[in-house]
Write a structure and sequence with these properties.
This protein has 186 residues and is an alpha+beta fold. 30% of the residues lie in helices and 27% in strands.
Length: 186
Amino acid sequence: MQGRGLSLPLRTPRLMLRQMNAADAPALRRIVTLPGVGRMLFAFPPDWTVAAAQDLIGAWQYRPGAARFRLAIDAGDGVLIGSVGLWAEGAAASEPQVFYFVDPAHAGKGLATEAMEAFVAALFDGYEIEALGADVFSDNPRSARVLARLGFGATGLGHGTSAARLEPAQIVLYRLSRANWKARTQ
């Protein structure tokens, strides 16, 4: 991806978005294997291990120009309470996809919106991208509300699979253009 990239950590009034590290593996594994979380994500089976979390952390580190990466959402105490990330490979290369989750113990406080607002702002500021995409399982209205608050608009429906679901399920596709982001934030 073209641009100067991100300047980490990203800070908000209540959060820090930072590189994940090996110490985050147990918390990452714990959160994504919670049944209510894992089924809303695409890649994490219920039996996902700490070793697999360590491998993912190593493979998805942020580097300027990286086509895929994950950052830790940290409430300032060094403990991972969620994650944001970007995937810009293959079909998503022209319209990078963003994703996120927050530990249910921290849900309902606006933290996912706060983290994603900082992340989206940094992406549009640091990269020459014209739009971001996202998708959400249709039975995940909380995540859909986060995207709506940020200005993402629904563009269609599809089907997605989750390693924590038995069968494919309907997803809602979302898009946020740079122009709409600028109009919203200026």
